[in-house]
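Customer escalation, tier 2.

The customer says the design service returned an amino acid string that "doesn't look like it belongs to this structure." They asked us to rerun it and document both sides in this ticket. The original C-alpha cells are below, unchanged.
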C-alpha cells in the first residue's frame, strides 16, 4: 500500500523535512564511540541541561534507554520493577526487562496509565523477609502512551517519588513524550525530570527526527550506561548525522507540539459527535486519542482503504497526531470514520 494520505498510526510516522535533512547533511561528525562526535556531544549536553541532570547518553532508540536504565538499576537477584501495567517496558519491549535485566515485574493499575502513590506503597515488599523479592525500581511514563497520552502532574510524581524514597527505590522516568507533557502543562522539562535517577526523551516521536533518544542521569550512572550501550550494540560511529536531526527538532519542533494537542482534541470532539463512537474528549490532554467502536479491526481496515491510517491496541482504536497531520487531515479522518460507521 502506498503512504496513507492521513497517517494517524503513530507520531513515529513523521518524515524528516528538507530543513532537518539539510542540518543532518551539514553535521560535523566524528567517532561517537570514542566521544569524538561533536554533534552527539552537543546533543547530550543539551538534553542533560534540558532535563536538569548531570550527563546524557545518545542512544538509537527509546526502548534502549529503558532497557539500559532497567539493567543499571535492577540487580539480577529477584529485584522487582514497578510500572503501570500498560507501560512500554512491560508491554512493548519484548520482555527485555525480564530477559536482559532479570527483573521481577509488578504491573500497577491506575486510570490512563497513571498509578497512585498508594498503589505503589501497597505493592512494596518486606525487606526483612527473605521469601519476598526486593523492591528496587519504579518507572513513570510521561506522557502515558497506551494510557492515552495523559500527563502526570508534578504533585502525582512527587507522591510517587516520596514512596520511592521511603523504600529506597531507584526511580526512572520514561519521557518518550516528556515534551508533550511540558507543552500541555506549562511545566518545565527539568521540573518533571527532577528527583528521578534516570530519565530520557525520544526524538523519533512528536519531535519528528528519524532516529534517536537521549538518556540522562548522574555522571556515574551514565558511565555505567555506556558499558551497556557498548554491550547491547548501541555504540555508533558518525552518529552526528542523526544527532543533528534531533538538535534541529529541539530548536524547531517543540513549540509546535501544542498544535498536535489542539488537533487531537478536535479529533476527539469530532469523534464524540459520531454515532457508534465512544470517546471522552476531556481525557485527551496531548496528542493521543483512544476511542471505542463495535469492531475496531474492521473500522481500521476500512479506514486504510480510504487512505486514513489508525492502529488497534487491545481492541480499541488509537489515533496519534503529529507534525504531518494538520486540521484538514483531522477533518478528513473524521469524514472517513463517519462514513464507515454509517
Ligand atoms: C515509543 C515509546 C518507547 C520506545 O521508544 P522507541 O524509540 O520507539 O524505541 C518507550 N516508551 C514509551 C512511552 C513510548 O511511547
Amino acid at each position: 500500500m502506498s503512504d496513507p494520505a492521513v497517517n494517524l498510526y503513530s507520531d513515529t510516522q513523521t518524515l524528516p523535512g528538507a530543513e532537518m535533512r539539510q542540518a543532518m547533511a551539514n553535521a560535523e561528525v566524528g567517532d561517537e564511540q570514542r566521544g569524538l562526535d561533536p554533534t552527539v556531544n552537543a546533543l547530550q549536553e543539551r538534553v542533560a541541561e534540558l532535563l536538569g541532570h548531570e550527563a546524557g547518553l545518545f542512544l538509537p532508540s527509546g526502548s534502549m534507554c529503558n532497557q539500559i536504565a532497567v539493567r543499571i538499576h535492577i540487580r539480577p537477584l529477584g529485584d522487582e520493577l514497578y510500572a503501570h501495567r500498560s507501560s512500554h517496558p512491560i508491554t512493548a519491549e519484548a520482555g527485555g526487562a525480564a530477559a536482559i535485566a532479570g527483573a521481577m515485574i509488578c504491573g500497577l493499575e491506575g486510570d490512563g496509565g497513571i498509578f497512585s502513590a498508594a498503589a505503589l506503597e501497597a505493592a512494596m515488599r518486606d525487606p526483612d523477609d527473605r521469601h519476598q523479592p526486593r523492591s528496587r525500581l519504579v518507572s513513570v511514563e510521561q506522557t502515558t502512551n497506551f494510557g492515552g497520552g495523559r500527563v502526570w502532574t508534578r504533585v502525582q510524581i512527587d507522591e510517587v517519588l516520596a514512596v520511592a524514597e521511603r523504600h529506597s527505590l531507584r526511580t526512572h522516568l520514561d519521557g518518550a513524550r516528556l515534551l508533550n507533557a511540558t507543552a500541555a502543562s506549562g511545566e518545565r522539562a527539568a521540573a518533571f525530570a527532577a528527583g528521578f535517577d534516570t530519565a530520557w526523551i525520544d526524538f523519533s516521536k512528536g519531535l519528528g527526527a528519524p532516529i534517536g533518544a537521549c538518556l540522562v542521569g548522574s555522571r556515574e550512572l551514565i558511565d555505567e550506561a555506556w558499558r551497556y550501550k557498548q554491550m547491547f550494540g548501541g555504540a555508533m560511529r558518525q552518529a552526528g548525522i542523526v544527532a543533528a536531526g534531533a538538535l534541529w527538532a529541539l530548536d524547531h519542533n517543540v513549540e509546535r507540539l501544542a498544535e498536535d494537542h489542539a488537533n487531537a482534541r478536535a479529533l476527539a470532539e469530532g469523534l464524540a459527535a459520531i454515532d457508534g463512537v465512544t470517546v471522552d474528549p476531556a481525557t485527551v490532554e496531548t496528542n493521543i486519542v483512544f476511542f471505542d467502536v463495535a469492531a475496531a479491526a474492521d473500522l481500521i481496515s476500512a479506514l486504510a482503504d480510504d487512505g486514513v491510517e489508525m492502529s488497534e491496541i487491545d481492541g480499541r482504536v488509537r489515533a496519534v497526531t503529529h507534525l504531518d497531520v494538520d486540521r484538514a487531515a483531522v477533518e478528513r479522518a473524521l469524514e472517513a470514520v463517519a462514513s464507515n460507521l454509517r
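Tier 2 assessment: The sequence is consistent with the input. Residues 61-63, 66, 88, 141, 145, 174, 176, 202, 204-205, 213 surround pyridoxal-5'-phosphate (CB under 6 Å). The chain has a mean pLDDT of 97. Sent an explanation to the customer and offered a walkthrough call.
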